[in-house]
Amino acid sequence: ETAPGYIMFVAWTVFFVSAILFFKEPQKLTALPPSSSSVNQNYSHDTMEMQPLLSNTSNGNSFKQTNTPKTRVSRLALSFTAFFSNIPVMTTLFIYFILKLALECILSSAPSITAYYFHWNTTASGTFLAILGILIFPANLVLAKVSRRYSDRYIIIVTLLMLIAGTFGILFYGSDSTTYSMTQYVTFAVFIFLSTNMLEGVNMSLLSKTIPKSWARGTFNSGLLATEAGTLGRAMGDVVISATALAGFDKMLNLTFAPLAFVSIVTTIVTWKVYEYLVPVDQDDED
Questions:
Q1: What is the C-alpha to C-alpha distance for residues 107 and 184, in angstroms, rounded to an integer?
Q2: Beta 61-62 vs 57-58: how paired, if at all?
Q3: Planar angle of CA 104, 253, 271, nearest 5 degrees
Q4: Beta-carbon contacts of residue 223 (< 8 Å; ≥ 6 apart)
Q5: How far apart are the first and last CA of the chain?
Q6: Distance (Å, rounded) from C-alpha 247 to C-alpha 190?
Q7: Which terminus of the chain has fewer Cβ atoms in its 10 Å neighbourhood, N or C?
Q8: Residue 88 and residue 136: Cα distance in Å, rounded?
């Protein structure tokens, strides 16, 4: 039961030791310092260019740009306002939250659902999850080729429709649990898994093209925002699995994926409503 933990510990230890022994920081290309003669020749010209266009004094009163706490609070408020009013960024972060929620639901619920309906043991469910992971590689190859012909926003809509199909197809519509087909579960579980992983790639691509450069600096940057959105989605997925398991394993499947199907429909509608805004921003008009 603890073998995966030991395997990951060994793998990360090898990676950590290899990074210490073999990783070298690449040299940074820096401009050569100017010669003293060129500095002397351009000194007077540069000093004239650095003179302010307006005088700092007017009628004997000096003008000074201050950086008071009130000014900093105002700038922070403007930054948050700009963030929440940026439709492409907010949409992509919301989609990222939903896809991580769906991905966590399908992965965390698989052992319990397959054990209840198909009497799979730990080895069988683990093999199934491993096969799902292997399918990422061909899916990403297909996504790379498709992204050359279609825009990111178009592929997002298509993958969201795949997610809707997967969440509705995996539901159990009968009354006898023995009639639930293994083929049905495996097929639509693959639908959900592949759609969320493909959606993640194209969604993050659109986020990188729409987020302003100013949000790529500092601690609270776009990477942190995406990480927190994904972490929140996974946490909510675990909460959903824990809550539905309390109702019994016979109700776990539908209680998990029926609300997820509704959320997927809402996400698709919202994305379609803002479809025209989901375009890369002009690099000259970011701020």
A1: 16
A2: antiparallel
A3: 55
A4: 216
A5: 52
A6: 25
A7: N
A8: 26
The answer to whether the beta carbons of residues 154 and 205 sit under 8 Å apart is no
User: Residue 57: phi, psi to the nearest 5?
Assistant: -120, 140
Closest CA to 75 of 180, 192, 214: 214
Contact predicate 257/170, CB 8 Å: yes
Residue 240, both tokens: 């959903």
Q: Which two tokens stand for residue 74?
A: 């105002």
- Per-chain mean pLDDT for the chain: 81
**Strand locations in 20-101, DSSP E?**
57-58, 61-62
* 149's tokens: 């012909």
Residue indicated by tokens 């946490």:
235
User: Above 90 in pLDDT, residue 238?
Assistant: yes
Is residue 259 within 8 Å of residue 122, measured between CB atoms?
no
pLDDT tens per residue, range 93-151: 999 999 999 999 999 999 999 999 999 998 899 899 999 999 999 999 999 999 999 99
CB 96 within 8 A of CB 233: yes
Which residues are CB-contacts of 202 (< 8 A; sequence separation ≥ 6)? 143, 147, 152, 155, 156, 159
- Give phi and psi for 62, each to the nearest 5: -80, 145
